[in-house]
Request: fold
Amino acid sequence: MNSPAARITLREAASALQRGDFAAAAAAASRVLAQAPDDADALNLLGLARFNGGDAQGGIAAAEAAVAARPGYRNAWDNLIGMLEAAGHARDAARAALRGLAARGQTSVDEQCEVAQRCFDAGLLDAAAFAAMPRGSYLVNIARGQHVVEADLIAAVQAGQLAGATLDVQATEPLPAGDPLWDVPGITITPHIAGQSSPDVVAAQF
Reply:
């Protein structure tokens, strides 16, 4: 809970942001943080002030601190995701969106669909994601083919970082006969049948 003095200073910071005085906004937010280093509202405002003032890295760092201080703070998550996207880090933005959903618990169907689309566009499962997984993990994708950077998946399986993968969806469907995914030991391809149980439908997809 902000003290009365802190609330006044935070209003000053918000007002400075609205008029485009990012240095003043950052200074006001920093005064609050000097007394309360984990104040999520001040960190959120500081992130916006820094980012819009030209310090993208500092803005993103402050936004990360804001969501760490208050995991259920939707406005701070939205700001963090927006900063990452504006800075050209689409995959990091998608990861932040997923983290935000997990941190905030119950969310609307619309928001879940928005996050899914962001992940769809971003190629979320890439070399960095595979490297972060425990060695010997196994990937099963029944979501969207575009979630996986397939060249990175092949490299991770061939290097032994992943034990293998089953892909019911691929970036290109049907998967071309010459696609390298067919030839990697440990990678199993199924013909987009996760929701189908009819032999006739399955046979047609092959």
About this structure: The two ends are 60 Å apart (CA to CA). The mean pLDDT is 87.
